């Protein structure tokens, strides 16, 4: 504590009114966030910086014990939050110089595979430069479950009511950036968060391809989950008792009848016109899926063919 007392007094006089300004909730957060918006973007920092959870390599067998390296510097991203709206911020990724693993805020990439961290993050990456706060995604999920709100309307609700356009930066580096949340961000956020919750509940790790199109990235993980739920995901799937099943002998043939309880609503999905066809159609317009790849056929799907 070698700082002279009169220097401390001078600092309090110069900065005292800035650093302890409370808002109506008794917090400085709003004031701090505004200061970050005004002065941080030039220096690549904001009040909501996104980092990988560890600064050391965790690849099994990697002997690198040094700090991971930030080779490319922070990248500009938009973070859609519940309390501060759409925020301009920065995401950092770190690299291991030995095993070449790349650590991002949500996952580590090894050999072309995106391996999500076990702890579900508060900022879920939904596109290359877009992150959505977990609380916002839970809002969308509840809107879907309770009031049948579509992803398009969820995005519209966010953009009109929660995006806080007054917080958008006027900084020249961000003029070209769109701060509008899009329906595909809502869907990808929904998919990533629910897959992560599903894996966490089973103490499993979510792994998806890092390369290829974003729209195909989670298809295999969703199919794997759907198959598991279909086969053994319902805890009562094997239930039977004298109240809900009746078995009788019909002239030497054993017959049975089940009670089925449904809510009367069926949410359909496009499928092939051949009953129980296991091949997924490439588009919702295809009535009968071709048995050879679309790229090798002159098959032209048409609504008029229905
Ligand atoms: Zn390593
Ligand atoms: Zn029963």
Protein described:
The chain has about 300 residues and is α+β, with helices and mostly antiparallel strands. It has one domain. Helices cover about 30% and strands about 15% of the residues. Strand 1 and strand 2 (about 85-90) form a beta hairpin. It binds zinc ion (2 copies). One zinc ion binds near residues 57, 59, 64, 96 and 99. One zinc ion binds near residues 96 and 99. Pfam families: CxC5.
Mass-distribution shape: elongated
> In order across it, which strands form the biggest sheet?
3-4-5-6-9
Taken in chain order, the helices and strands follow as HHEEEEEEEEHHHEHHEE
Q: What's the story with the biggest beta sheet?
A: 5 strands, antiparallel
The whole-angstrom Rg is 27 Å
Low-confidence stretches: 294-306
Bound molecules: zinc ion
Q: What structural class do the secondary elements suggest?
A: alpha+beta
Strand content: 15-25%
List how many beta strands DSSP finds.
11
Overall mean pLDDT stands at 86
Count of runs of 4 or more consecutive helical residues: 7
Amino-to-carboxy terminus distance = 82 Å
Number of domains: 1
Proportion in helices: 25-40%
């Amino acid at each position: 504590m070698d700082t002279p007392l009169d220097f401390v007094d001078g600092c309090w006089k110069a900065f005292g009114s800035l650093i302890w300004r409370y808002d109506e909730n008794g917090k400085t957060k709003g004031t701090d966030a505004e200061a970050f918006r005004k002065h941080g973007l030039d220096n690549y920092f904001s009040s909501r910086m996104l980092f990988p959870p560890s600064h050391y390599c965790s690849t099994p067998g990697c002997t690198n014990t040094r700090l991971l390296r930030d080779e490319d510097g922070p990248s500009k991203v938009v973070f859609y939050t519940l309390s501060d709206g759409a925020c301009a911020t920065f995401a950092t990724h770190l690299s291991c110089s030995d095993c070449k693993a790349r650590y991002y805020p949500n996952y580590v990439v090894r050999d072309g595979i995106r391996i999500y961290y076990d702890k579900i993050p508060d900022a879920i990456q939904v596109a290359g430069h877009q992150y959505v706060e977990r609380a916002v995604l839970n809002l969308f999920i509840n809107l879907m479950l309770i009031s049948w709100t579509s992803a398009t309307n969820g995005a519209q609700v966010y953009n009109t009511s929660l995006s806080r356009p007054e917080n958008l930066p006027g900084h020249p580096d961000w003029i070209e950036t769109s701060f509008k949340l899009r329906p595909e961000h809502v869907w990808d956020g929904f998919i990533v968060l629910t897959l992560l919750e599903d894996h966490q509940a089973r103490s499993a790790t979510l792994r998806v391809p890092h390369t290829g199109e974003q729209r195909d990235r989670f298809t295999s993980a969703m199919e794997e989950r759907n198959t598991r739920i279909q086969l053994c995901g319902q805890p009562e799937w094997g239930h039977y008792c004298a109240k809900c099943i009746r078995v009788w002998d019909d002239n030497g043939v054993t017959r049975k009848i089940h009670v089925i309880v449904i809510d009367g609503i069926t949410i359909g999905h496009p499928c092939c016109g051949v009953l129980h066809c296991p091949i997924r159609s490439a588009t919702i317009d295809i009535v009968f899926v071709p048995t050879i790849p679309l790229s090798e056929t002159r098959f032209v799907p048409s609504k008029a063919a229905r």
